[in-house]
């Protein structure tokens, strides 16, 4: 079973930071007197949304300013010096999936047996879970912030579900709940042919129509020229 939480995100109160669920004995985190239930909210002035942010923002850093909301409600600011390879010894809460708003005609969640395990009914559309676990996304509702995060943190590979490559067919297969325009992710799938030897995958971004700017920006990272 996947490690991520199976409760829909809409039922969970969104709180700042990433919650610590365990601190290893005699670790740097224990030395800093951090405990289970404390939430790390910022690292070097940058907000922490989840443990991926924390890992990215602390990687290779030897001098850190870490802001913490203690479980008691106190706010701490910690000035930390550490060795480059020294681990904090933290375990964090699992990521609550970003929920999918589409009504795809091919969604396997609708065909699950009623007694299937709960994780099979999670309709996620989450770039983080795609990176961590290989979950597929349609990218139909990807935001500029999510694109920027993939680019900055190099959250690759991303697993993209493409079931139609023509502008007239794609909206009917994905059928988003709102009136959003479904971006055309790859109008010519054959341009992503299998590379041979050390050749790179052909530049899919150059094949994208001008109206699909989001998808082209993303594909420049996932399929560099």
Précis, in short:
With 225 residues, the protein is of the alpha+beta class. It has helices spanning 28-31, 51-58, 127-133, 144-153, 170-174, 213-222; strands at residues 18-23, 39-43, 46-47, 63-69, 75-81, 90-92, 136-137, 159-160. It is built from six helices and eight strands, in the order E-H-E-E-H-E-E-E-H-E-H-E-H-H.
Helix and strand arrangement:
Blueprint: E1 18-23, H1 28-31, E2 39-43, E3 46-47, H2 51-58, E4 63-69, E5 75-81, E6 90-92, H3 127-133, E7 136-137, H4 144-153, E8 159-160, H5 170-174, H6 213-222
Parallel strand pairs: 7-8
Antiparallel strand pairs: 1-2, 1-6, 2-3, 2-4, 4-5
Helix pairs in contact: 4-6
Annotation field: number of helices: 6
Query: Separation of termini?
Result: 37 Å
Order of helices and strands: EHEEHEEEHEHEHH
Q: Percent of residues in beta strands?
A: 15-25%
Overall pLDDT: 75
- Using the alpha-carbon principal axes, give the shape: elongated
Strand count, sense and closure of the main sheet? 6 strands, antiparallel
Question: Can you tell me the residue ranges where pLDDT is under 50 for at least 5 consecutive residues?
Answer: 1-12, 177-212
Number of domains: 2
Helix content: 10-25%
Number of strands: 8
Evaluate the radius of gyration. Answer: 20 Å
Overall structural class, as computed from helix and strand content, comes to alpha+beta
Written description of the protein model:
With 225 residues, this protein is α+β, with helices and mostly antiparallel strands. The chain has two domains: 9-92, Pdz3 Domain (Roll), CATH 2.30.42; 108-222, no CATH class. Helix content is 20%, strand content 15%. The protein is built from six helices and eight strands, in the order βαββαβββαβαβαα. The protein has helices at 28-31, 51-58, 127-133, 144-153, 170-174, 213-222; strands at 18-23, 39-43, 46-47, 63-69, 75-81, 90-92, 136-137, 159-160. The strands form two sheets. Strands 1, 2, 3, 4, 5 and 6 form a six-stranded antiparallel β-sheet that branches. A two-stranded parallel sheet has the order 7-8. Helix 4 (144-153) runs parallel beside helix 6. The longest helix has 10 residues, at 144-153. It is elongated, with a radius of gyration of 20 Å. The two termini are 37 Å apart. Mean pLDDT is 75; it is low at 1-12 and 177-212.
